[in-house]
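Q: Hi! New to this. If I give you a protein sequence and the SMILES for magnesium ion, can you show me the bound structure?
A: Yes, paste them in.
Q: Okay, here:
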Amino acid sequence: MSALTVKNLHVKIGESHILHGVTFDVPAHKVTALLGRNGVGKSTTLKSIMGLYQGTGSIELDGLQILGTPTYKIAQAGVAYVPEDREIFSTLSVRENLTLASRNKNNGDAYKNIFELFPELDTRAAQLAGSLSGGQQQMVAIARALLNENEILLVDEPTKGLAPKLVTEVANALVKVAHKTTMLLVEQNLALVKRIAENVIVMDQGRVVFQGGPENLNDPAWVHQMLGVSGGHK
Ligand SMILES: Nc1ncnc2c1ncn2[C@@H]1O[C@H](COP(=O)(O)OP(=O)(O)O)[C@@H](O)[C@H]1O
Ligand SMILES: [Mg+2]
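A: Thanks. Here is the predicted structure of the protein with magnesium ion bound:
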């Protein structure tokens, strides 16, 4: 069953036609990786699902049309979004960041789950988010998305710009999160994608050029052709 179905999505930003009929399915309870070279439209796709860009076509969440719906309603319908630049409040504490994100103020269980997933956020609850490491800030951004009941989690390049040790930390966290939710993950780190993704979508120039299983990621020639990187060995 599909949690999210995107059909023939066209998005223009100003005069630029960025998405040219993007079509894909995100199966429920699985991790789907959204891959492609820089600038092909991955972030634009996630933002359009979130209603941050308007487009034409169809975006269905569990069969409910969400295209054209305001962002706050899309969030209420169960789409959680961890943006590329994290957008946490650096002058607020970890706990304050989480409290602000929570739609249900009596969700002690949700906090318990999050602190089980990210024990470090519990011990650092009073610390200003801006003083955390990049990896810890990413965990705050993911935890914030997980505080509410969601149908799907959209995560945009969570390991981007992180030191290798922190990449491993965030990767381990995402593996744990993967057991709890449906995820659409944009990620350049192919080792992480292979570890976590059960389904792969490749975009090129505003279109989907592949959707299928992750096996091809083990074929260096395929990876080179699709993603323009010499991957497949890691
Ligand atoms: N706000 C914007 N205004 C104009 N062009 C944009 C904007 N955001 C993205 N683009 C363009 O849209 C294309 C896709 O960008 P993006 O979705 O960020 O790619 P990706 O996430 O795959 O790297 C790029 O050519 C980029 O320059
Ligand atoms: Mg991007």
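A: Residues 164-178 form the longest helix (15 residues). Let me know if you'd like me to explain how to read the tokens.
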